[in-house]
Amino acid sequence: MATDQLQTVVLHGDQLKYVDQGSGPVVVLIHGLLGAHSNWEPQIETLSRHYRVIAPDLFGHGASDKPAGDYSLSAHAATVRDLLEALDIPSATLVGHSLGGGIAMQTLYLFPDRVERLCLVASGGLGPEVSPLLRAATLPGSELVLPVLASRTLTDVTDKALGLFNKIGLFKLGASASEARKSFASVSDASTRQAFLATARSVINYNGQTVNATPHFANFKNLQALLVWGEEDTIIPNAHTENARAELPLGRVEIFKRAGHFPHLDYPDRFDRVFSEFMTDCGVGIGTGPKAVSS
Question: Where is the AB hydrolase-1 domain (predicted)?
């Protein structure tokens, strides 16, 4: 979706851009670190045929403002709450990818009445393990290194090399790899880079992820949750699904074979089918109102 087609809401003096498409039960799509609403482009198109889909560019990301300030999970969760409040939406199903999964879980923890159910896609916040590249990005001095790594010249050369390898069969450049490359290139922008570092350092250090949501699941034993992961995810290992499964009696886990960190982009048709089945199992039929099951 072009940026001129995005809607705008002003929250605490800053502009938040978002997609609001379709009608029916509300589904909020929350992107990950360095992402934007465009990370959900296939889902916005297909899910909006049956649901009202809200997909924001979080503050510090995409077309939204990138103010100096708090980029913690709680701050992002408050943004989700404030957006729902501004749109007069009492509650919704939250779908979060990577960092967005952590934000969805933090929204549940802080504002449980706002969350009907969760769909976590390659989610952060379920274990310490995370890509060494993300751990390195939080180290002192990374502010100086990131602009060089993400420079237009370097990324153009790398993209051409990856494209050549993909063409001759030496390297498979799937949707996950392409989206990860595009997301990383955005740190060449200074304001985006500052927001990225503030967000990453709030949840990651040199040892890995510092926030773990699983101890809090005991407060939500009736929570209906869907976990979707890529079998070949090199950013956050799919073994983290076991951490959640142990605490969520009603949880459902789907591992997509040959998928990476963006399984919903690698296999959008399968994601749509799995998500539709999950919503039906939760008692949310097409054209019906939401059924709150989070607590």
Answer: 25-266
**Which one of 57, 233, 266, 272 is the catalytic residue?**
233
pLDDT tens per residue across span 159-181: 444 444 345 443 344 676 666 66
| Catalytic residue status for 233 | yes
**Could you please report the per-residue DSSP string of the chain?**
--GGG-EEEEETTEEEEEEEE--SSEEEEE--TT--GGGGHHHHHHHTTTSEEEEE--TTSTTS---SS--SHHHHHHHHHHHHHHTT---EEEEEETHHHHHHHHHHHH-GGGEEEEEEES-SSS-S---HHHHHHTSTTHHHHHHHHT-HHHHHHHHHHHHHHHHHTSS---HHHHHHHHHHHGGGSHHHHHHHHHHHHHHEETTEE----GGGGGGGTT--EEEEEETT-SSS-TTHHHHHHTT-TTEEEEEETT--S-HHHHSHHHHHHHHHHHHHHTT--TTS-------
Please name the fold of domain 3-132+210-281. Answer: Rossmann fold (3.40.50)
> Which of 38, 64, 98, 183 is labelled catalytic?
98
List the catalytic residue out of 261, 264, 266, 294: 261
- Entry pTM: 0.84
